[in-house]
Amino acid sequence: MTNTFLSQLVDLLGNDVVQTEAAEIEPWLSDWRGVYKGQAQALVRPLTTQQVSDCLRLCNEHKVPVVPRGGNTGLCGGATPDGSSANVILSLDRMNTVRSIDTIANTLVADAGCILGNLRRAAHEADRLLPLSLAAEDSSQIGGNIATNAGGVNVLRYGMARELVLGIEAVLPNGDIYNGLQTLRKDNTGYDLKQLLIGSEGTLGVITGVALRLHAPMHVRSVVLAAVDSPKQALELLRLVFGACGPRLQAFEFFTDECLDLVLAHVDGVQLPFDQRHPAYVLIELADTANEEALQTLLEDVIGRALEQELCQDAAVSASMAQLQALWRLREEISEAQRSDGPHLKHDISLPIERIPEFIDSAELRLRTVANDCRLFIFGHFGDGNLHYNVSRPLHAEKTWAHEWEERIADLVFAEVASYGGSISAEHGIGQLKRRSFHEHKDPLQIRLMEQIKKVFDPNGIMNPGKLL
Ligand SMILES: Cc1cc2nc3c(=O)[nH]c(=O)nc-3n(C[C@H](O)[C@H](O)[C@H](O)COP(=O)(O)OP(=O)(O)OC[C@H]3O[C@@H](n4cnc5c(N)ncnc54)[C@H](O)[C@@H]3O)c2cc1C
Prior knowledge:
Elements: H1 2-13, E1 18-19, H2 22-25, E2 42-44, H3 49-61, E3 66-69, E4 88-91, E5 98-102, E6 107-111, H4 116-125, H5 142-147, H6 155-158, E7 165-171, E8 177-180, H7 194-197, E9 206-213, E10 220-228, H8 231-245, E11 249-256, H9 257-266, E12 280-288, H10 292-308, E13 314-317, H11 321-332, H12 334-341, E14 344-345, E15 348-350, H13 356-370, E16 375-380, E17 386-392, H14 401-419, H15 435-441, H16 444-457
Parallel strand pairs: 2-4, 3-4
Antiparallel strand pairs: 1-2, 5-6, 6-9, 7-8, 7-9, 10-12, 10-13, 11-12, 11-16, 14-17, 15-17, 16-17
Helix pairs in contact: 1-3, 8-10, 9-12, 13-14
This protein binds flavin-adenine dinucleotide.
């Protein structure tokens, strides 16, 4: 049956679109971190929505599992096939055209395979801002960003990916094309079905096009790196900065001195702008449409007050774009530095923001009772209550440590998160990584409703099996 299926697939879409040689498929079988590896019988790289539709219709008829693939930067193994050799990987990478940009309605419509960074640059050239921004933006695709409801560094001001989506075009598992690619701001005609596709991690259909909301360009930016003695101090600093800067506050990122150690050890050309080290750092960005001097004065004023009120220990304000970028690198290179350091356990969590300091203390206490000498790397989008609470092997341990401790540590961290009323996945999704914990921590009623929705969209269960549900 599989062979019949494969030859029909090739007949339908052609050799250019369907690749079946093991050597061609091999590079598509693992995730960015190299943690997951699966199997597949074919890689399909369509050029049009109609080809996606033809592919899904045939897969559905043959009950062949389909794994949608964006830029493969997801950190939960969502775009990696499972161990079944029946899988078809469907990559959107060749569907990468900007369909339109409207600078009156402030919208951008694009194919789902467009790289996020390219869309940000296209918006910039049209004197607009696409505010979705993350360290993986030059590899991740907008379809993947929407399928994971990505967050990133500007959520504080503009919200998650969901808040930027006006419309979606998607292909359902039976091949039907969901034509929801509208740019209307207002449309109260029944259930908002696109919301189900946003964050569905490829389990309901394949997103082929997106209509996004653009914002005014932020021509002036200013950044300060503030050294803090504790997460509690960072919290007080956030209170002050938000009160003083309001909507100009574009990012409020946090990282500990241990994260800085990693970056300094593994990344070339980075430098701390302080004479001495501190327990943690906060990177604050302000941005505005105009008036650089006023923005700089505002930032210097608020940081001056923070130093006076002892809400930070030291501060370095960027005086040029090069300095601004150098400060950002200290934060943005943490994930890459961790990858170089070796296997580690990622916990992308969110918490009621005012409880972050308490959580950090109590989680570490609990963690140390079971894995005393593990290394903790805590960083993230502090202003959104989102921490990347990452745990690495003790320096003397084998690289297999992460694999051996994965479940015990995840159970411990997520139990602690739950006790604070937090979420076990802030922005990375569930994928394969958090499936077990998701079922343990999510309200059973909500899981049941999700399973029913999945059946409506995908009665044969072909979409991304083994992920999320
Ligand atoms: C260095 C680094 C930094 C990161 N920083 C952040 C961050 O700040 N914030 C954040 O939210 N994430 C971050 N991530 C995670 C990742 O970049 C995001 O999850 C991103 O949105 C994934 O997009 P992608 O195109 O790479 O998707 P993939 O990894 O290819 O896929 C992710 C999931 O979406 C599904 N999918 C992909 N494309 C489609 C489609 N067209 N239709 C339907 N389903 C699809 C896949 O099946 C899979 O389940 C980071 C990752 C790295 C490596």
